[in-house]
Amino acid sequence: MSKGGKKTAGGQYAVMKKVLRYVGRYRFFLICSIVCAAATVVLTLYIPILTGNAIDCIVEAGKVDLTAIASILRVMAVVAGATALAQWVMSVCNNRIAYHVVQDIRRDAFEKIQVLPLKYLDAHPYGELVSRIIADADQFSDGLLMGFTQLFTGVLTIFGTLLFMLAENVGITLVVVCITPVSLFVAAFIARGTYRMFKLQSETRGEQTALIDEMIGNQKVVQAFSYEEKALERFDVINEKLGKYSLKATFFSSLTNPCTRFVNSLVYIGVCITGALSAIAGRLTVGTLTCFLSYANQYTKPFNEISGVFTEFQNALACAARLFALIEEEPQTPEPEDAKVLENARGEVVLKDVAFSYVPEKKLIEDLNLFVEPGKRVAIVGPTGCGKTTLINLLMRFYDVDKGSISVDGTDIRRLTRKSLRENYGMVLQETWLKAGTVRENILMGKPDATEEEMVAAAKAAHSHSFIKRLPDGYDTVLSEDGEGLSQGQKQLLCITRVMLCLPPMLILDEATSSIDTRTEMRIQKAFAGMMKGRTSFVIAHRLSTIMDSDIILVMRDGHIVEQGSHDALLAENGFYAELYNSQFVLSE
């Protein structure tokens, strides 16, 4: 148990240090908040002294000093007004700190996603990452705001009260100090269990968000295959686990208030007994005793508040830990300081002894060698899972090779900037992606400075102009996320238009016409033929009839190039390619 506690405490301490680094960026607001908190505490603690003085002015019959009482009441009104102002300024500063810190952490987390290697994103559900950046950040913001609002004033109130009490009576103060460690021990015990449970709760909430995102995003498939019951079972398992962790977290956090109240009662009783005995002995006036009893309440109240804040703060730190885990993930391999910028690429691509696998235990591509002359059209064919798309990922440097090298125009792509390498490739994939925005914005994504005439010409070449003009606002029609409302074929035509507009020196077409009708495909193939002329092109296609005119056809199998050559030459060899080609015309019996 102690080992686990130390580990948790160490984890919390490390997370807290990271949070303070972000808070440190807003020193001005932090200093203002501390100053206002100190002013609030001092002014609040001064009121009981004024109250005690007022009581001493009326404690004996016939000796009521109304002039002194009126003067004290005026001072109390000024003090109360100043306290309210200080509290308001402190709240403004705390809000600024909390929201700016969360804003910074969210931005850093989103920036990290932009530079994370694809293998990390492939290994983590999107919903879980969304949960970290949205839900966990919100939870952290709430806990941090509550912490700044009540923690400063609470801690300062405790120490301020002790100083005021010491100035009035040392004996009673010592009684309070002796009982205080009990409260600290109880709070520390509860904190260990609370942090662990809130961390598990946060992780499970992310798991649940990932499942919901997966099921909603693929609801058509879920219903088509009658997966509803199974999906509900999976949700129930996670939901039950979340309920269990939430209940335990709530249980631990709910212990805080009654435990601290019990200790606070002990403090109050101690002050009452010692104060009453001192008053009877004549060492304390009734007004001073009243002041001490007020201080006893003032002293114990922050323990309740801090305990409640501590519970929220545990939750906030647990959420912050998940955010920092994302922010501190290893980014993709950094570019060398002397990385070259690839400009006006000729398109000579060479793969030498390339080896790559997603999982070390499962080999995929081994000893792959390839030389592509500038302007050549290369088709890549083979059965599903043979490494075709993986090869494209390596060419674009979405993944780095495990062994060997890939070079463009004689330079290893690891010595080139990723931005310049990818700017020299035009890519159309089977899976389309459109951002929320107008049709125009989606087409101009790769060439923002293109003219209206260039954009329309590209759309006509891609055979998308006619359907775009039929949209409600033509090129200014606003598309929702991922082009909802358009057919899959129309979305693919927009992606083709995007590449037609850029016309980079190298092209990658991965089943680029898979969702388009045969008639339109024939037209686009002609447009592609013109577009690919003089450009190095890599074409992946399952319909072998579409790649018959390629300069070279690579036949892949189990991560290796088993055959290569022209369409006619490969058919003459009567090998694996011929088998794939002829299988298209075999009718099932």
Any overview of this molecule?
There is one protein chain. With 589 residues, the chain is α/β, with parallel strands linked by helices. The chain has a domain at 2-327: ABC transporter transmembrane region fold (Up-down Bundle). The protein is 64% helix and 10% strand. The protein contains 18 helices and twelve strands. The chain has helices at residues 2-23, 27-56, 66-115, 118-123, 126-168, 170-217, 219-224, 228-280, 286-327, 388-395, 418-423, 439-443, 452-461, 465-469, 488-502, 518-532, 567-573, 576-583; strands spanning 349-356, 365-372, 377-381, 403-408, 411-412, 425-428, 437-438, 478-479, 506-510, 536-540, 552-557, 560-565. It has a six-stranded mixed β-sheet with strand order 6-9-10-3-11-12, sandwiched between helices. A four-stranded antiparallel β-sheet has the order 2-1-4-5, covered by helices on one side. Strands 7-8 form a two-stranded antiparallel ribbon. It is elongated.
Summarize the structure.
With 589 residues, the protein is α/β, with parallel strands linked by helices. It has helices spanning 2-23, 27-56, 66-115, 118-123, 126-168, 170-217, 219-224, 228-280, 286-327, 388-395, 418-423, 439-443, 452-461, 465-469, 488-502, 518-532, 567-573, 576-583, and strands spanning 349-356, 365-372, 377-381, 403-408, 411-412, 425-428, 437-438, 478-479, 506-510, 536-540, 552-557, 560-565.
